[in-house]
Amino acid sequence: MTMNPTIGPGSPELARKMWRTLEPYHGIIYFTPHAEAEYAKLGVLGRDGYFASRSAALGVASAELVTATFYNFHPAVVGRAIPAAWEKTTPEAILAARLRAANAVLREILGDGTESDEMAEAASLAERVARRASITGRPLFAAHASLTWPAEPHLILWHAITLLREYRGDGHIACLVACGLDGCEALVSHGSAGVEGISESVLKRSRAWPDDEWQAARDRLSARGLYEGEQLSAAGAELRARIEEMTDQAAAGAWLAISVEEAERLRALVRPWSRAIVASGSFGLR
Question: Rounded CA gap, 251 and 15, in Å?
C-alpha cells in the first residue's frame, strides 16, 4: 500500500480522513425512523429524542449542561426537550432504545455485512482506538466512554465510532471557545464558509435560531471584521480555516493507538458501509 507521506501516526490529516469516512456509520442514528419509533415508545417524541438520546450518557443532565456540551443549538429548543424527557423515561432506557435503533438500521442497510469477518476486524480496530483515547477535557466523550460496550461486532463498531465522533466534537468546541465564537456565531461562520457543503439556512433551521438572533450573530462577526455583507471576510475565512485545522489537530491524538496502515485498513473496511448508508437515502444533515 502506497502511503501519503503527509499522513503520519496521529497526524491531523489522518484524523480528518478517518472522520470523513466513519461519520455516516454513526450519523445514521439521527435520521432513521427506527430511532424515532423507539423513543416514542418511551414517551419521548419527535426532535426531543435527539437531545435525550445524545445526552443520555451524561445521566439526568440539566438543559444548561446539554446546551453547553452540544454548543450550537438554541437554548430554548434544548430547554423544551431537557429535562422534560427525564419525566417520561430514564437515560438508561433511552440508551437501550438508541442501541436497538442502531442495530435495526444497520442490519436493514448492510444485511449480511453485519455478520462478516470484515465487520469483526473493523470493530476490533475501532474499539482499540476508542478505548485508548484520553477522556481529559472531553466531557461528552468521557460520558459515552463510561457506557457498557455492546457485544455484536456491528454495534461495537457503531459504539466506537460514536465515541470517536464525540471525542472530535469536544475538541472542536474547545477550538471554537479559544477562537472566541459562541454557538450561533460558529454556525454563521460555518455556513458562510461552506464547510462540508452545509448552507447557513440548513444550520439556522436545524439549530432553531430565530432570525433576529441569527442577524445579531452576523452583526457581531461584522464588528470584528470577520463578516462582510452576506459572507465571511478574508479574515473570517482565515479564522474558519484555522478552526478546522485546530479541530483536526485536537482529534489526532486518538489515532496514535493504531498504526497508519491499520487506520487505512479501517477506512477501507468502513468505506463501503458508509457509502451504502448514504446511498440508502435516509442519511441527512443534523
Answer: 6
The 10s digit of each residue's pLDDT in 215-274 is: 999 999 999 999 998 899 999 999 999 999 999 999 999 999 999 999 999 999 999 999
Helix (H, G, I), strand (E, B) or coil at 181: coil
Q: Which residues contact 32 (CB under 8 A, 6 or more apart)?
A: 101, 104, 105, 282
Distance of alpha carbon 241 from alpha carbon 179, whole angstroms: 12
CA distances from 185 to 30, 77, 157 (A): 24, 17, 34
Q: Which three cell numbers stand for residue 97?
A: 432504545
* pLDDT tens digits, one per residue of 95-123: 999 999 999 999 999 999 999 999 999 99
Please enumerate in sequence order all residues whose Cβ is within 8 A of that of 91, keeping only pairs 6 or more positions apart, or say none. 52, 56, 57, 58, 59, 60
pTM exceeds 0.85: yes
C-alpha dist (Å) from residue 33 to 23, 36, 49, 124, 156: 18, 5, 11, 28, 21
For the beta carbon of residue 76, count every other beta carbon within 10 angstroms.
13
**Cβ atoms 26, 95 nearer than 8 A:** no
Section 49-69 average pLDDT = 97
Q: Is 282 exposed, middle or buried (CB count within 10 Å of its CB: 0-12, 13-18, 19+)?
A: middle
